[in-house]
Write a structure and sequence with these properties.
GO terms for molecular function: glutaminase activity. By secondary structure, the chain is of the alpha+beta class. Helix content is 44%, strand content 10%. The protein folds into two domains: 167 residues, DD-peptidase/beta-lactamase superfamily (Beta-lactamase, 3-Layer(aba) Sandwich), CATH 3.40.710.10; 127 residues, 3-Layer(aba) Sandwich (Beta-lactamase), CATH 3.40.710.10. The protein contains eleven helices and seven strands. The strands form two sheets. The chain has a five-stranded antiparallel β-sheet. It has a two-stranded antiparallel ribbon with strand order 3-4. The longest helix is centred in the first third of the chain and has 20 residues. Bound molecules: 6-diazenyl-5-OXO-L-norleucine. 6-diazenyl-5-OXO-L-norleucine binds next to strand 5.
Length: 318
């Protein structure tokens, strides 16, 4: 049975106890070792591996946190589900499905493979799919597209966000694998504009600075059917929230998605700067940030924390 986190069986009855629970969980997971800080984007290698923050935001607008929940880092792939939602809203399901599928790959997030039947990226959570989706960001110039993208994330977080220029430049200078993926998709007709143009907004999108608390609010926006519970603003149309959650569930943790579903059982998305965002629909959003990642690109402490929370409150939706 699905227990509710904030009410009902298995409840944590008061704000104080939620905070105490998170403090204890934080104490346990912040001592875990294993994994390594991402270094294929040189600027990310400078991250402090000891950082560890957990945050929860409920659909009635309460936030709870422990540890380094207000330290900024770059959102990286956790941006992908949100731009996917934006693209669906702008162009509709059919048009987007022509360009990006909804099948898990069982491959790494940066794999250079397209679905050979349709010649399109497998899903919007791997780099290929996310680059194709980034083409849908509105704007006549790179500056306008960057601004529109940043506005989307600011509305999701409920505060004005900014881009980490150093991380953006670092990926712009070294992201040749993503460049190869973009050119391959230009060849197959899955993108139409100049690859460098699309990569520019994709690299900026990955370099948006957020905190674990921001990600918890973004997750709670998905849990709340697209309305940011802090600002009350609708950011994602209700009809596309289930599309987003479905691909997060099947593809959000890359080639660990099956095991994640088995162990944790809630839709989630990870990013190589060390964050994981997870959604309990109709209840709350969870975010964990800790830079060391495993071989799949998922935060080691983030996975451990989500496993514990899911077990403690029987959140597995299956
Ligand atoms: O495109 C990239 O490689 C990065 N900007 C984002 C990758 C990422 O976060 C994958 N997540 N685990």
């Amino acid at each position: 049975m699905l227990r509710t986190f904030v009410s009902g069986e298995g409840e944590i009855p008061s704000s104080g106890l939620v905070s105490d629970y998170l403090a204890e969980l934080h104490f346990r997971i912040s001592h875990l070792s294993g994994g390594a800080v991402a270094s294929y984007i040189p600027e990310l290698a400078k991250a402090d591996p000891k950082l560890c923050g957990i945050a929860i935001a409920t659909i009635d607008g309460k936030t709870y946190s422990a540890g380094d929940a207000d330290v900024e880092f770059t959102i990286q792939s956790v941006s992908k589900p949100f731009v996917y939602g934006y693209a669906l809203e702008r162009h509709g399901r059919e048009a987007i499905l022509q360009r990006v599928g909804v099948e898990p790959t069982g491959e790494a997030f940066n794999s250079i493979v397209l679905d050979e039947v349709h010649n399109r990226p497998f899903n919007p959570m791997v780099n290929a799919g996310a680059i194709a989706i980034a083409e849908t960001i509105k704007g006549a110039t790179p500056a306008e597209r960057a601004q529109n993208m940043l506005t989307l994330f600011s509305r999701l977080a409920g505060r004005r966000l900014s881009i980490d220029e150093q991380v953006y430049r670092s990926e712009l200078e070294t992201g040749h694998r993503n460049r190869a993926i973009a050119y391959m998709m230009l060849n197959s007709g899955m993108i139409r504009r100049a690859p460098e143009d699309i990569l520019d907004v994709y690299f900026r999108q990955c370099a948006v600075r957020v905190t674990a608390r921001d990600l918890a609010v973004m997750a709670a926006t998905l849990a709340n059917d697209g309305v940011n519970p802090l600002s009350g603003e609708r950011v994602i149309a209700t009809e596309y929230v289930s599309d987003i959650l479905t691909v997060m569930n099947t593809c959000g943790m890359y080639n660990y998605a099956g095991q994640w579903s088995y162990d944790v059982g809630i839709p989630a998305k990870s990013g190589v700067a060390g964050s994981i965002l997870a959604v309990i629909p109709g209840q709350l959003g969870i975010a964990v940030f800790s830079p060391p990642i495993d071989q799949h690109g998922n935060s080691v402490r983030g996975v451990a924390a989500c496993k514990e929370i899911a077990q403690d409150f029987r959140l597995n939706i299956f």
